[in-house]
Amino acid sequence: MKHLLKLGDLTDKEILSVLNLADQLKYEQKHGIPHKRLEGKTLGMIFSKASTRTRVSFEVGMYQLGGQALFLSSNDLQIGRGEPIQDTARVLSRFLDGIMIRTFAQSDVEDLAKYGSVPVINGLTDYCHPCQVLADLMTIREYKGSFKGLKLCFVGDGNNMANSLIVGCVKLGMKISVACPDDFRPDAKLIEWGTKSGLLEVTNDIYKAAADADVIYTDVWASMGQEGEKAVREKAFASYKVDDKLLSYAKKDCMVLHCLPAHRGEEITEEVLEKHADEIFEEAENRLHAQKAVMVKLMDK
Ligand code: CP
Ligand code: NVA
Fold first, then answer.
1. Which has the closest alpha carbon to 255: 299, 215, 200?
2. Closest-lying ligand 1 atom to the alpha carbon of residue 55
3. Most CB within 10 Å of its CB: which of 149, 256, 266, 274?
4. Which domain holds residue 238?
């Protein structure tokens, strides 16, 4: 593993190895066992979009690992004034031991890795959100014990979350059903790949998608950068909502996950979110442990 640009670059074994290390680091942190595996190392964190969980978990995670993290807003970097990614990559690689980037285009993340010489971690693009899905998978295994025979149902926009969930579930042998309107389907290549595996189903029937699900997952109707489409999306997704009725189609012990931030009353009801708050906030906490595992795998060389 040289970078984490998208989950599809990792083998199933590599994903499991990150999850196992994340469990171990969570245990060490909870039991006060020192794990300063990145002493003296510096991570640069480039943000072109807002963040609460990703920023704080990377920053705190790096501190707990004995290193330090630099918050680099793209508004304040020369990137914001047009300095090309290939130059930024070469300059930052001379100062830093790793770079995390949250931005719009997946190609910017790929270029950062191509032109730089340090590990690059994708902290969310319009295309995918691999760090989130590693934390999601970690949470599912914590609650369910294993991935064997499980079905995850994703309800809503076929966005970055849906794309990464398809990859994560299929790689680990979980079934995944995506319920979305026809105009908001996940990436076409991923649909083709997932469908071939026999594990992916894409439908606009939310009840069919939720049938016998072990995990129901949702995300906002309008992602960062799509604020101008709010009205169109509110209309398109009005019936793509995680509520008690939808949950009645799933297994009795079905978990509910949400990458957060959540819009109560839109993609998820207040009642469902609060009933499943333990799972959802454990999932948020697991961003810390999963990302520490990614950083150790990539930067502890
Ligand atoms: N889930 C997630 O990535 O949260 P932030 O946008 O707050 O980082
Ligand atoms: N799909 C959302 C995920 C936020 C973590 C977005 O891109 O804004």
1. 215
2. 8
3. 256
4. 132-283
